[in-house]
Description:
The structure holds two protein chains of two kinds. Chain A is mostly helical. Chain A has two domains: 1-53; 54-95. Chain A has four helices and no strands. The longest helix of chain A has 34 residues, at 19-52. Chain A is elongated, with a radius of gyration of 29 Å. The model of chain A has no long low-confidence stretch (mean pLDDT 90). By secondary structure, chain B is mostly helical. Helix content of chain B is 73%, strand content 0%. In chain B, helix 1 packs across helix 2 and helix 3 crosses helix 4 (68-87).
Amino acid sequence: xxxxxxxxxxxxxxxxxxxxxxxxxxxxxxxxxxxxxxxxxxxxxxxxxxxxxxxxxxxxxxxxxxxxxxxxxxxxxxxxxxxxxxxxxxxxxxx
Amino acid sequence: xxxxxxxxxxxxxxxxxxxxxxxxxxxxxxxxxxxxxxxxxxxxxxxxxxxxxxxxxxxxxxxxxxxxxxxxxxxxxxxxxxxxxxxxxxxxxxxxxxxxxxxxxxxxxxxxxxxxxxxxxxxxxxxxxxxxxxxxxxxxxxxxxxxxxxxxxxxxxxxxxxxxxxxxxxxxxxxxxx
Lengths: 95, 178
């Protein structure tokens, strides 16, 4: 057998013996850790927003503005279009 | 797009089961590649293979086009180099002097063992280049990308590695015959 033939021989196959399961166990742990970090960060952000933002002032301002814009035809049309496009997207995704 | 590329896209979109299929599909070749790099140290090869798959999962969104296995090998090779530097496993630079302790004559006839022993004498980049281009069937371009080398450098590592192997195997064969 010449050198090229020797080198071209495939590597001996290695049996799995639970290797893939161990890797996937660590992958799942990594995903849980990521998910925890994501939700914990979101919770911290919400908590900070609740503490820092002037909710009373914002509420009072919204109380003045919302009744004025709620009756706008253009706004209602835009909202309806958003809802319809989301529904259609879901329907097409199922096909 | 081949099936592994498609599975990698699915995994990047959050499908862990798709990543599981990739692990099962490529584990044998990757562990074989690392075993050769680690000169037969199976425990080290398996540790590095696990770390390679975890890093691949973390970076799966960065996988572009091309051979998924080649991309895995790139991660595995850089992990091996880091580990070899950390543990001072071997001289990573090209060594001109080759030790001449041949295997015992009764074992010299076992060609496969001879190849592995001779491979272990090469520097890691030559071991990796020869394994990727021959045993694992990657193209020179894919192997160069995996080892982060220019194509010409990869080819010269392949040629020099082949020459060294030929010298070693011939010397051992002659010693076994005499």
